[in-house]
Amino acid sequence: MGTRPLPSAAMSGRARVSSREHSLNVALAVVMAGWLLLMPLPLGSARPAYWLINAVAVGAIGSWYWWSLTRLGAGVRFGLRAVPLVALTYLLLIGWIAVQALPLGVAPAVTLADGQPLDWAAVSVAPDTTWLVLLQVLTYGGCFALIMQVAANRGRAQLLLELIFFGVAAYALLGLVLLADGDTLLGLPKWAYQGSATGPFVNRNSFATFLAIGAAVGAALLTCSNTRLLPHARWMRVALILAALLIIGTAIFATKSRMGAASAAVGVLVTLLVGGIRAKWGALRWVAVAGATVASGGAMAWAFGSGVLERLITVDDADGRAVLYSQVLEMIHARPLFGFGAGTFEQAFPLYHRLPLSTDVIWDKAHSTYLTLWVELGFVGGSLPLLAIAILVIHLLLSLGRSDEYWSPSAAALGAIAVVAVHSLVDFSIEIQAVALLFVALLALGVAQKRTGTGP
């Protein structure tokens, strides 16, 4: 006749499993932090080869993590049921992109201006490109799921947030050094945007969005007194964050990106607003923060913002953008339901490109992520990512209502959404993988705070 284990033995066994699970999650946090901070180095991961490498990396990290959990007899802290509507929209998006790439012969032919019809076996005009986009979307989903597991512990989520912030500040400093030391792209001659800070990115606007998201994270850290990496002495913590924000702000102005500066301002203001409300600032604190924000922003603009000001005064591409957008809207009207296929704007736009839009320029981007989504995925499919983010905003607002000392991840995520929402109106920075993965990681960190605790 068997004997039951003593309660103390059972408790000891559970404690060992919990300790090993904690060590596993700490290891996952370190691996994900390192991966995210290395992401911008190879040209912002804006090439298909890097998409493949990152997809393999996320798959390998995810496989190792779930295999390790299985060995421990533990389960994931966050599954699909944690964000069911977001998971549903994500799965629908994956399914629709796959349908676009398959040779189903269901999409209507495109009629050119001369009346000639063009037809394809698949919805996508370039199925190989659409499969590559699907690979990216799967990478984003894997990143979101893994960061959610890291964020299951609030202290660990806070640590990762601080690592991200100072990582962005390091890239800002790198951008300023590269600009001052020969204006190179990681030591190589630039082929575009000479005279503007681009860091490891090719495009100054992508670098500006990356930095603006980091600025929103810094603003969130200012509102929350609980930290992991930073010293607990308030004056030291504030001084370090402000120093890093000064570097980031200087680099944003050095990019000469108009919308980069505008989106950073919006992101910081949104973050300070939601963080200040959550921290229950008094009137004196609000006045002090508002004054300091305006003064520091004005000082950086005066000292380093001449390039941005010059480009604001001479808006030389407004007419071209207006003509571009009108022709992009024609594309949406031609295939409002099916779209032309994920990632295929560059291949599809020549069918509609005509004067007076310059023919000396290769228009491989719509210069508006919203329009790009609707051109490539159709109005319904292209609205799925926007719907998912809207749902996440609700989750983030709910997470801010927790009676908890860690709210900076949720505030940072809302600030990042504000940055991306504004800059995506007239640019494509979020379509650059390093920027997109940083954004996805912050969304996961923020939304996880609705249910996180202090466990393993």
Descriptive notes:
By secondary structure, the protein is mainly alpha-helical. It has one domain. Helix content is 66%, strand content 2%. The chain is built from 15 helices and 4 strands. The chain has helices at 7-38, 48-72, 84-101, 127-150, 154-180, 204-223, 234-254, 258-279, 283-304, 306-313, 318-334, 345-348, 369-400, 408-423, 433-447, and strands spanning 110-111, 117-118, 184-185, 188-189. Strands 1-2 form a two-stranded antiparallel ribbon. It has a two-stranded antiparallel sheet with strand order 3-4. A hairpin with a 2-residue loop joins strand 3 and strand 4. Helix 5 (154-180) packs across helix 7 (234-254) and helix 7 runs parallel beside helix 9. The model has no long low-confidence stretch (mean pLDDT 86).
State the gist of this model.
The model has no long low-confidence stretch (mean pLDDT 86).
Task: Write out key terms for the chains shown.
two-stranded antiparallel sheet, globular, single chain, mainly alpha, two-stranded antiparallel ribbon, 456 residues
Q: What percent of residues adopt helix (DSSP H or I)?
A: 55-70%
Report the total helices: 15
Strand order of the largest sheet: 1-2
Number of domains: 1
Rg from alpha-carbon coordinates: 23 Å
Strand tally is: 4
- How far is it from the N-terminal to the C-terminal residue, by CA? 36 Å
Proportion of beta-strand residues: under 5%
Mean of residue pLDDT? Answer: 86
The backbone outline, from C-alpha atoms, is globular
